[in-house]
Design goal:
The structure holds 2 protein chains of 2 kinds.
Chain A (H helix, E strand, L loop, with lengths): L5 H15 L4 H9 L3 H7 L10 H28 L10 E3 L12 H16 L7 E8 L10 E12 L2 E13 L7 H24 L7 E2 L2 E7 L6 E8 L1 H21 L7 H6 L8 H4 L3 H10 L8 H7 L4 H8 L7 H11 L8
Chain B lengths: L1 H15 L3 E2 L14 E8 L6 E8 L5 E4 L6 H20 L7 E4 L2 H14 L7 H22 L6 E3 H8 E2 L10 H8 L7 H8 L10 H16 L3 H36 L6 H23 L13 H22 L4 H10 L2 E14 L3 E11 L11 E4 L8 E9 L5 E8 L16 E5 L4 H11 L1 H7 L5 H9 L24
The chains are: A alpha/beta, B alpha+beta.
């Protein structure tokens, strides 16, 4: 949920931004260059909504602070109750930034302190079994300009005698059991999967991977409806999402190399890059409206949704109109379009 | 194939330059205005309780309740109880008429669920207020359940119903905005409906407010919190109230306009009466359980099924409801039948022959031979039961005796045998063209399954039922009869309440 440092948070957000529409070169360039699309949209004169709800931001911060208050007493009690931590587990490691109630002012300090904590775990010292804001940097420069992650909550348990990190993601939205918003849950799991992958990379590079393990399962911390109490969803499987992060980062790295973007390249590079509009753009990209207008002008089926776009492929909507008016299909694909339209013959507009 | 049908309808809408009907008839009954209540909520960012709620019962004026600070739980509770009184009264005074609650969209349904989660089992408050809140919570839970159940029309999510009724020439993701859909359904105007629909998206209709408005209100909320006296708080409270009232009013007016459009869109499917009838039965059951609750009876948790058997029973029951709703609507709506064809749960064909055959030594039955398009999907298999489209009673049941595909895959010949000696449903003649046969939609088997699951414990104890060992294991996993953590509406810290 609330992460401590702008650039650190951006890393995950940029990756997720790219993953929502990997076909769009402008989107890839924006993610790689760490230039938010909102800046590009503003530069192009678009009227874009201004920021997030101030109440939601305040609620997120107070929710997290209350949870980590008194050495995370509330979170620990619920993690024990949910079977994530044993009742005997003790100690709290706080790597959060000052603005979030933690001790650190700089990213590098939080990074160093987290690294030291991982070292302690590797040497068998398990006196801090719950951590807030653990900060890691993904090695290898897979993404420009850097890849820093802040993990909301991390529990440490002993499995087969090996200290094992259990990743937790904190969200302020309410847990409604089977009715909890699927998209929000998927996003939370994707974030947690990125942390699992990041921790594995960091431990591997520090050659600690045989002394400290990262669990494929973790937990989500949600709120309860209408209250400040927390709800733990234990045993969430993040393995698939960790794999998604691994392959996604690797692909993004290849894209970064293929695009040959200079780290200091500015807005014009993104503005000139090709765009590819899709349905997901509506939910995350501030340029979605202008890209949609362009797609509509070129007759791209994407303006009717991803399913229509997939079905039509390269066939523009103008050609569909001709086919519907009786034009002779030129190939098997066009014959399929005609056949499909025929199944809804007689449907009239209002 | 069903996705393909959606694609085709969306393309048709694009070609038509506006929405097109997905269904021939409106699938639900819309009672007269006096039996309708409209409601809308707004919430503060990050909160799951309402900041303001508005409603309109029948032809009465819109009523709106707001609180200056949505994080002050005692004030919110009083506001929610006021809404709950009105909602409960709306349904309790129905006197046999179908009554409905209409909401603008899914986030408002979520708010009903939030209220159910928060208040239906609250334990601590002034007894009079607590009773009202508990009742409100349970009623909101019932309303939320109704939005998830196609066989109930007690609570209508208008946006979802418009999506069900029309195909729009836009991306599915945009169809979650009521204003967008209504602009498409409205008059063309100078600028064209596409532009009007895009412009309509600027105004929030969900329970969330525009962050820019929240930014404007934030200082007033802060000042209200800081003020020491009622007089000092008043101007800030007024400012907040006016802004929230305007937001609620806009949502309710949009909802009312949308309801009129929906009501006028098409005639009612005759089968909708069956759905109304099962909704009324559900209402009667609810009133019965309310009497039990008011005597201190156990209240079902809106959060969990508690036990595997209850969960399994609910699943089977929901499945039955889905089938029942379909069974009610399909016979009267060719578009519903087209959906079944697209899914492969129906086939259309030309009747090649109608014969009388003898099965065994003396069983005499009618037999149909039908030629269908071999390229279309078919999920139905030999021995499956089907009925002829339009057979409202579903009594003329045919069994698929044989499916013979043409080696080239162009056609498929299907032989069907009547289940009864004298089939009571429609009887096609030889040479009839495009006769549609679809799966027999019978919810009774699922209902029976739900009842069986409910009796799991007894069956397991008896030990004679087939698969008794599985039932025994299930019964062993039943938790003790304890309630889960229970929330107090005033935010006190009691963690777990065992109430047996």
């Amino acid at each position: 949920m609330a992460e401590s440092d702008g650039s650190a948070q951006d890393t995950r957000r940029r990756f997720e931004q790219w993953a929502k529409n990997p076909r769009c070169a402008a989107n890839a360039a924006s993610a790689i260059l760490n230039i938010p699309m909102v800046e590009v949209a503003r530069a192009e004169g678009a009227k874009v909504p201004f920021g997030q709800s101030p109440f939601a931001l305040a609620r997120g911060q107070s929710f997290e602070r209350a949870m980590f208050k008194d050495d995370a007493a509330v979170l620990r009690a619920d993690l024990v109750a949910a079977g994530v931590l044993p009742a005997s587990a003790r100690g709290f490691a706080d790597f959060r930034f000052k603005r979030n109630g933690g001790p650190f002012a700089k990213v590098d300090d939080a990074l160093a302190s987290t690294t030291k904590w991982l070292g302690e775990l590797a040497s068998g010292r398990l006196d801090r079994t719950l951590a807030a804001g653990a900060t890691i940097r993904i090695p290898g420069g897979v993404m420009l300009p850097h890849a820093t992650l802040c993990i909301d909550a991390t529990a440490v348990v002993l499995r087969d005698g090996v200290p094992t990190l259990v990743v937790g993601e904190v969200k302020v939205y309410p847990d409604r059991g089977g009715y909890t918003d699927e998209t929000q849950l998927a996003t939370s799991r994707a974030q947690a999967g990125m942390y699992v992958h990041g921790l594995r990379l960091v431990l591997q590079e520090a050659k600690l991977d045989h002394k400290v393990a990262v669990s494929a399962t973790g937990f989500l911390v949600l709120s309860r409806s209408g209250s400040n109490r927390i709800s733990i969803r234990a045993n969430e499987d993040f393995e698939g999402q960790a794999e998604r992060a691994r392959t996604g980062l690797s692909t993004l790295s290849s894209v970064a190399q293929a695009l040959k973007l200079a780290p200091n390249a500015g807005l014009p590079v993104i503005q000139k890059a090709e765009v590819s509009y899709c349905e997901a753009c509506v939910s995350f990209c501030e340029r979605a409206d202008s890209c949609r207008d362009r797609a509509a002008a070129s007759g791209d089926g994407a303006v009717l949704g991803d399913e229509v776009q997939r079905f039509l492929g390269e066939v523009p909507l103008a050609r569909v109109r001709q086919l519907a008016s009786g034009a002779k299909p030129a190939n098997e694909h066009e014959r399929e379009i005609v056949r499909m339209l025929a199944t809804t013959e007689g449907a009239n507009g209002r | 194939m069903a996705a393909e049908r959606d694609t085709a309808l969306r393309l048709r809408a694009y070609l038509a330059g506006g929405p097109i009907a997905r269904l021939e008839h409106r699938p639900i009954a819309v009672p007269p205005a006096k039996d309708r209540m409209l409601a809308a909520f707004v919430r503060m960012g990050g909160e799951s309780s309402p900041w303001a709620v508005g409603w309109k019962r029948g032809r009465r004026a819109i009523e709106i309740r707001t609180v200056p600070e949505a994080r002050r739980r005692s004030d919110v509770a009083v506001m929610v109880a006021d809404f709950g009184d009105e909602l409960c009264s709306h349904f309790e005074s129905a006197e046999g008429a179908l009554r409905q609650l209409w909401i603008p969209g899914s986030t408002h349904a979520e708010m009903l669920h939030f209220i159910a989660l928060r208040y239906s089992r609250a334990k601590k408050a002034d007894p009079e207020l607590l009773a009202r809140l508990n009742r409100t919570g349970r009623r909101c839970g019932q309303m939320f359940d109704a939005t998830q159940n196609p066989n109930s029309v007690l609570c209508i999510d208008l946006t979802a119903r418009l999506r069900e009724m029309f195909a729009f020439p836009c991306e599915p993701v945009r169809e979650n905005h009521l204003g967008h859909l209504l602009a498409w359904l409205g008059p063309d105007g100078k600028e064209g409906r596409a532009k009007l629909a895009k412009d309509a998206e600027v105004f929030a209709v969900s329970t969330s407010l525009d962050p820019e408005l929240e930014r404007v209100l934030a200082p007033a909320v802060e000042a209200w919190n800081d003020a020491q006296t009622d007089a000092a708080r008043r101007p800030h409270a007024d400012r907040i109230r006016k802004a929230l009232e305007s937001e609620i009013r806009r949502r309710l007016e949009l909802l009312e306009a949308g309801l009129e459009i929906y009501d006028d869109a098409a005639g009612e499917n005759p089968g909708a009466a069956l759905i109304s009838s099962s909704s009324m039965q559900e209402l009667t059951r609810f009133e019965g359980s309310e009497a039990y609750h008011s005597d201190g009876g156990f209240v079902r948790s809106p959060e969990t099924d508690h036990s595997p058997t209850t969960a399994a029973m609910s699943y089977a029951q929901k499945d039955a409801d889905m089938i029942a709703a379909r069974a009610a609507l399909v016979p009267f709506d060719r578009a519903c039948q087209a959906e079944l064809l697209a899914e492969g749960n129906a086939f259309a064909g030309d009747v090649l022959s109608v014969e009388t055959v003898v099965i065994g030594t003396k069983t005499i039955r009618k037999q149909l031979t039908v030629a269908t398009d071999g390229a279309l999907p078919l999920r139905l298999r030999e021995q499956d039961s089907v009925v002829i489209a339009g057979d409202a009673d579903g009594k003329g049941v045919w069994k698929i005796h044989q499916i013979t595909p043409d080696p080239k895959g162009k056609t498929r010949t299907i032989r069907l045998v009547a289940m009864q000696a004298n089939p009571t449903g429609p009887m096609p003649k030889r040479g009839a063209v495009g006769v549609v046969f679809h799966e027999k939609l019978d919810p009774e088997l699922r209902r029976r399954l739900a009842r069986m699951v409910f009796q799991t414990k007894e069956l397991a104890t008896d030990g004679t039922a087939p698969g008794a060992w599985i039932l025994e294991q299930l019964a062993a996993r039943e938790p003790s009869d304890t309630a889960p953590d229970t929330e107090h509406f005033d935010g006190t810290t009691t963690r777990v309440v065992q109430d047996g």
